Records
---
Amino acid sequence: MARLRRPKFLRNGKATAGALILLFFFILAVIGSWIAPYSPDATGPDAVVGPSGAHWFGTDQLGRDIYSQLLVGTRGVIVVGFAAGVIATVLSLVIGIASGYLPGRGGEALSVISNVFLVLPALPLLIIITSATPKDGGWIVILTIGLTSWAWNARLLRAQTLSLRRRDYVEAARATGESTWRIIAFEILPNLTAIIASGFVGTVVFTILSEITLAFVGINVSEWNWGTVLYWAQSQDALAQNAWWWFVPAGMAIALLGTGLALLNFGIDEFVNPRLRSGGRARVRTRAGRRLRMRVGFTPVLATVEEGEAR
Amino acid sequence: MAPEQTTAVLEAEGLTKHFPVRGAGRDVLRRGAAVHAVDDVALSLHRGRVTALVGESGSGKSTVARLLAQLQTRTGGAVRLHGKDVTVHGGRRFRAYCRSVQLIFQDPFASLNPVHTVRYHLTRALRVHGHAGRTARELEEALTDLLGRVRLTPAEQYLAKFPHELSGGQRQRVAIARALAARPEVLLADEPVSMLDVSIRLGVLNLLRDLKEQLSLAVLYITHDIASARYFADETLVMYAGRLVEGGESETVTQSPAHPYTRLLIDSAPDPERIGSAQRAELDEDDLGEPPSLVTPPAGCRFHPRCPHAMERCTTELPPRFEVSGKQWAACWLYDNGSPAPAGES
Ligand SMILES: Nc1ncnc2c1ncn2[C@@H]1O[C@H](COP(=O)(O)OP(=O)(O)OP(=O)(O)O)[C@@H](O)[C@H]1O
Ligand code: SF4
Ligand SMILES: [Mg+2]
């Protein structure tokens, strides 16, 4: 499957654009602190000066280089976002699929647990926890978001698993004699790719925005990230000083990363859902108004395209 | 050939399945309400013979197939493989059971996983049952052999294809090949052609018949098309609202039906001679009126609300099997002049 899909996947324009944007930020996350011209904490004589050859994105109230702050801050944003995304995705996978596939009590119990987590307010919780723990905010953010934000995806996965396990091909795999874990891993899981991937991307977006929000409201500003830059800009009245260079680049970086993730999400959706992918070319509309899809084998057969059928 | 002459591979006796009713609904107010999907079904499948199970939609045909395949647990009765009562839920013993008894699903557009190739489906079935051989070459030979059996040649052309790249008929052939990979003795075919285009139904039925001959399979052919039962099956059983109402040699049952329900079925089928007209010959529920509720099935004979010959006792007493001729029985009080045929025989 992967063998056949990867090249096709990259033929999707949205997915490619999203992947390129992400790649750009990944590279920055790795090399950002090396290519930064200054230390983000190094103060200088020129306070609140606009962009120049020496300071591309200008300086802040202590004369620190904002370009360097953004470059160094990229790593924190990316690492925290993706680490929390991985934790939440793994949790939602295990709990969602198990609660959808296991019959009876076990499944119900897991479903109740995810409903409880669903109403846990992640951001307020995060504010409470991070302000109570003074050091090393990054890990706290990763764990808090990772452990609290899996429930929505788990619910989606449970619903989809419940519907997939009723499909004939799952029953046919059982009738062939396949074991339960094999059915879950090889018959059901591949058909959940879209939900898993978009859930992952959604959690990453949520985590990044939460982390930036935290820094922006002044919690966890000891480590540099884009929110820290915005926090200083806000607290020093950058807008009133007309110091646009202080917050516009950070805002643009957030918007660009968000766009990249959203494009990737659309691309995944279109790619995994063949009905969006084919763009209607293979379909014909009969005079009666029914939608049909042409299939050519050694006997031409007209088959009705059914709602919600992934093929 | 009478069924008594060969021993049955797979037998069912008193086969019963009640689905508990859950959720909202008026019937649910009573505790223990259940859908009586299958009640007291007895049948036996013999090698090299096709037994047809005919009935309208919702009469419980698929449920019988699932119970025989042990994909669902039965509420009551016995399923005997080679004379031994077997109940398996899964695991190793289920694997051993399904090596002998394989099921083909109605909808070939749903029974193959859209993310897997033909090669994957067939390889898995071979592997699970230990017929994949030890080397890559042996596996390749086994795959080619399987596709050859269902007449998808040359095999290389089909192995790399995904289900959506195949026609309905080709998909159903792949599904049949997957069932054959277990080298079963019994094939349960749940409406194997009803989702296919009329023009290719005959091809698939003929393929099943040839496979039955070559591999001496016992076939249960489930259909709602009584014309194709005559064409394809040695023996025909008619099912109504979860119960068998008539059975016997296909020719006799379809040409001189005894049970009032079977007669209605055949009258609603315009031309049983022509299999090509199978689509029109399918049961038309409008002609037959509403099927009864399976949650509170009618007392006595379940057909009595719709039966033109219904008598007093039909509303209270359940008719047992009566022998109509040596080749035919019917569960109907109209035939209560002979002695009741012993249950469990078909
Ligand atoms: N898992 C289930 N839970 C509850 N009720 C069920 C279940 N499976 C089947 N039934 C009910 O049992 C009855 C018989 O269903 P079954 O699928 O066996 O009919 P069928 O003869 O195969 O019909 P069709 O020709 O439409 O396939 C139906 O009323 C159906 O609603
Ligand atoms: S038993 Fe009575 S109601 Fe049932 S089919 Fe025979 S005559 Fe009709
Ligand atoms: Mg059915």
---
Amino acid sequence: MSDVLEAAHVSRYFDVSKPWLQRVLTGGRRAVLRAVDDVSFAIPKATTLSLVGESGCGKSTVARLAVGLYEPTAGSIRFEGQPLSAARAQASLRRRMNMIFQDPYASLNPRWRVRDIVAEPLRAFKILNSPREITARVGELLTQVGLSPADGEKFPHEFSGGQRQRVSIARALSSTPDFLVCDEPTSALDVSVQAQILNLMRDLQQRLGLTYLFISHNLAVVRHMSDRLGVMYLGRIVEIGPGEDVFRTPRHPYTRLLLDAIPDLEMVGKPRTPVGGEVPSPLAPPPGCPFHPRCPLANDRCRVERPDYTVARDTLVACHAVEEGRS
Amino acid sequence: MALLDVRDLTVEFPTRRGLLRAIDNVSFSIETGEILGVVGESGAGKSLTGASIIGLLDPPGRIVGGQILLDGKRIDNLSPERMRAVRGKQIGAIFQDPLTTLDPLASIGSQLTETIQTHLRLSDREARERAIKWLEEVGIPGARARIDAYPHEFSGGMRQRVVIALALCAEPRLVVADEPTTALDVSIQAQIIELLKRLAREHGMSVMLITHDMGVIAETADRVAVMYAGRIVEIGPVMDVVRHPKHPYSEGLMGSIPSLEHRVERLRQIDGAMPRLNAIPVGCPYNPRCPKVFDRCRVERPNLLDAGATQSACWLYDKVPAHV
Ligand SMILES: Nc1ncnc2c1ncn2[C@@H]1O[C@H](COP(=O)(O)OP(=O)(O)OP(=O)(O)O)[C@@H](O)[C@H]1O
Ligand SMILES: Nc1ncnc2c1ncn2[C@@H]1O[C@H](COP(=O)(O)OP(=O)(O)OP(=O)(O)O)[C@@H](O)[C@H]1O
Ligand code: SF4
Ligand code: SF4
Ligand SMILES: [Mg+2]
Ligand SMILES: [Mg+2]
């Protein structure tokens, strides 16, 4: 099976220094934030790779890198074998990738009617030309996401949060992309509409071979959607492997703690176990293994040496304890 | 006396296509220190109910009927200036859309200190220290170093936590929290939930918690209201509503929750879509999708009826035989 997207040793840094003048006056130093740090993965055609991890660990930054909205600071990304920037330069390839943004409101033009928002990719890429066909296609897309064709008349502010999220899903699907990056696509939806959208995404994958990069904090949703699963911590992927394996036998200490922190319908009133310890500042990541200040298995080696990947069946795990067989 | 009392709230939007009734006769109350969860179909009117309470209903939407009382005093008819004073000090708001709450041109720190100083008499330095404390309280790592950052430099979940800090820093008596934890990972989510529960328990803060996350509801709320097409269709103690829902819509909703235990080919969903506001069916609004529908449902509209531990707007729970 060929890989639709391939990321090799990709990093993205942000310069978050105070302005130059303020630095001179108050003596602050240049500060670089490593939002994504040496990340590699591949997504085979017609499969879903999910990314999970704490807020701020770099998931959205990976998502933006994957569709070319950010340039990597280092490393390379290939789309169907071509460098991503070259692929983005060709309209025929560009129309084949799309993204559902984490913030549905900010990504919809408030002055456009919803029918024009959804039709925009159809017009931009000249996928359909006659107004009749465009209207029919827009109506079909709105129906698929549980809205009605008549909703196309309205402006974004006339919708509820979840309805807007569905508008952005309809727009992302309108150019019939083969590769779709979904950043929290169903976070604003009630569970029934969420089920409807996820079922639609799975249907499209089975029928048309769509490939997804899928990001969500809802681990039940992630389990349902993923073929492969990557767990991120402070800009790095610390564990990546087949979704079911990672859920059944999590190997990295962070993955284990993350799975223990899931809310549970059975546990009314009982506290669950949040991942203990301070979340380190990404401006000053700890040396060695970035998870060591919070890790129950940390030893001296963990505090100085950054762990490489260990192969455990089909899973890659960046942890000394796993490598040493003491996990 | 309940801290918040909402009576027969009705909200309409005049549009070119006629009047749209988005909230239809909604009544509920929240006690001091109580957390009321609000769940329901996307577009059911949860956010509009919250916006009505905090007096931030966007025109042309307007309250056309009913009353909202805080501590026994009406707040739905206050002048904009008086309402602004109530908001912030008495009622805090966490909006669904963090970006619209935050000023993109002001640093996180200046937005927090300004809010704190509007409500509490503190020096600049004290207010700044308190702002850092609140950022730590909502789990922003390296708060002291990052307080001068601008909203776009924060991740989605970090911005959401700033919004939570902004709503809580004036120590209001009631917080309307619209999807406060959806952009957050499970661990931060647990921390925010703990914070809300602690403020409710120790400071008697009341919370109206709007969310789609049933796990969060089960863990946090004392009671839950389920909304559908502008109305409350079921309300009662959290365990009863989540585990033994009485209304057929609540049943369908609880049945759609994806399980973490096993993976299925297709998730269960409620077939069909919620009616558009200008085409609410006669009788029970849920009747076109309801597996238990019977004749009466298509003619008469049910109000909340006692259904064991909860109240449910469904004719199945009418003890008086129908006259149809
Ligand atoms: N444009 C930017 N300038 C400076 N820092 C940034 C920028 N974008 C992201 N960051 C920082 O990079 C880190 C990763 O952010 P990212 O948005 O990728 O996180 P995330 O994993 O998507 O989090 P969430 O789950 O909260 O959405 C964060 O510390 C964030 O503050
Ligand atoms: N400005 C407006 N003009 C017309 N209709 C509106 C306007 N604002 C909201 N509505 C409608 O009112 C209804 C209720 O909206 P509300 O935002 O309260 O839903 P919600 O329950 O919060 O949904 P979600 O879970 O998706 O956030 C929706 O059907 C929406 O389309
Ligand atoms: S390398 Fe060490 S500190 Fe890092 S996760 Fe493994 S055991 Fe824990
Ligand atoms: S009143 Fe009738 S249609 Fe409505 S929920 Fe009850 S059984 Fe279903
Ligand atoms: Mg993100
Ligand atoms: Mg809403």
